[in-house]
């Protein structure tokens, strides 16, 4: 499906990263990175394995702390925030992690109810039912409501995982390798879903991937992480309009084999 034009508000930066450095032992993973995520945009972070993409998501969500620099998320400085305020902030962020597995012993309905019951004190049964039905419809899986996760395909499980984060109406979505381990057709369906989520929920998203089809289909901008820094940031075509020996093989491997 062709990506619809997104409504991006460049005057509203929802994540602002400045001069962030992070090392483990003697390995400097991030060497002074700057990045802005604008309201309403899908920003793809591309990079080879081990370049620090997952570390970046963990720094943004406060699961790891920076060595240097600042990270502002929805107006909160996460490098100095209290644990309590960080918990409140995390509720405003939807995490679609590679290993964010569903609870195998619960139906799809119960899996989706779980975050609501936990985070929305005082919510009524009627409100829960409406929220579950709405989000299932949004991911195109209304018919699975009473099924168990084991009865779903890999792509369907991924969709339910995304629905489980959407049910809390996050302002920011962080997708870590959303197409990993899926066949090419299912990848395209997930990419379409990421774009639908952007349109319908007006989320601002960071999509971490090394899948260039995913980057091309979903990204309003691409930020390429190379040697610990964002060396190339722009549209897909801008990022790959280069003879840089670190960038070209990436493109050639994905599209010319
Ligand atoms: N908690 C940690 N302790 C020590 N080293 C770590 C830790 N977390 C990440 N690293 C190291 O930081 C580097 C970047 O890891 P990261 O998981 O961010 O890579 P990635 O770009 O997400 O790769 P992939 O695409 O394979 O998931 C790796 O060399 C990894 O071993």
From TrEMBL:
The keyword Zinc-finger appears for this protein: no
The UniProt record lists the keyword Transport: yes
Domain ABC transporter: 15-252
MF terms in GO: ATP binding
Residue stretches in coiled coil: none
Source organism, top-level taxon: Bacteria
Keywords on record: ATP-binding, Nucleotide-binding, Transport
Protein name: ATP-binding cassette domain-containing protein
Organism: Mucilaginibacter aquariorum
